[in-house]
Write a structure and sequence with these properties.
This protein is an all-alpha fold. The protein has a domain of 60 residues. Helices cover 61% and strands 0% of the residues. The chain has two helices and no strands. Helix 1 packs antiparallel against helix 2. The protein is elongated. The N and C termini lie far apart (63 Å). 9% of the residues are buried.
């Protein structure tokens, strides 16, 4: 007998999750750079909070993708950012 309690995600829902996953991976790259460059401890706290939020979102997204049998998007990785490069503007 087929389990009717599990409803598959729609294409629009999967598209939204996929986009959010990509956004969170790029956020991790940008925030990692900021965290490495900032000298203000108050700013560091905010950046660390945002970085942790993006990491949690990635983890949750992976759980959803696993549950739906979908592959993870590649997204952005540590290979896409050099946190040791010099400050860009300031």
């Amino acid at each position: 007998m087929e389990d009717k309690t599990k409803i598959d995600l729609t294409a629009a829902e999967m598209s939204s999750l996929w986009t959010q996953y990509i956004n969170d991976t790029v956020s991790i790259c940008v925030l990692s750079y900021f965290l490495n460059k900032t000298e203000d401890n108050r700013v560091k706290e905010i950046v660390e909070f945002a970085l942790n939020a993006s990491r949690k979102n990635i983890s949750l997204g992976q759980e959803i993708f696993d549950g739906e049998g979908f592959p993870y998007p590649v997204g952005f990785t540590a290979k896409d950012v050099n946190v040791h490069s010099p400050k860009a503007l300031f």
